Amino acid sequence: MHGPASPGWLLVALCAATGAYCLLRMRSSVEEQRRAAGGEALMGFGMAAMAVPAAVFSPPAWAWPAYAVVFGAAALRALWAARTSRHHLHHLVGASAMVYMALAMAASPGEHHHIPGGSGVPLVTGTLLLYFAGYVLLSGVRLVPTVAVTTSGGAGGWGDRPELARACRLSMGIAMVAMLLTL
Prior knowledge:
Oligomer: single chain
Number of domains: 1
Order of helices and strands: HHHHHH
Largest sheet: none
Number of strands: 0
Strand content: under 5%
Radius of gyration: 17 Å
Helix content: 55-70%
């Protein structure tokens, strides 16, 4: 993504750490959590790779179409999984946003993406920004504790902590907003 190097590295670190935690969540005993964590790990690591500052590393021309193919496949998988769980609709939007950003980066390497002859934010970018800003606000509200929940004697573990999963989703939503703003 285009933008200053320092915030870019912070975004890389945030997304990579989120992806790593999602890999830990894949060890959960709950199958639905494992499936969701796999998609979220892909998103976290993919966002980390896309957020590396262009001043440090400019990916080869084939990288952006490769991102589009990988996240296009993830979007199709999320579309298929959305038949049974509406949470996968969010994965569908996220993977589609990654495809959109990869195609935008392929179309305009080294420049900010704008509509030719137009000014302002493109319609798709603006729509995605509104969606992810709303998602971030909703995810933040969901993190506010309403009832103290305690686990008994080590039950669960790091992979089964719903509040950490929500925090990861919140951080990836914030990262997506940041990436869309720099597009």
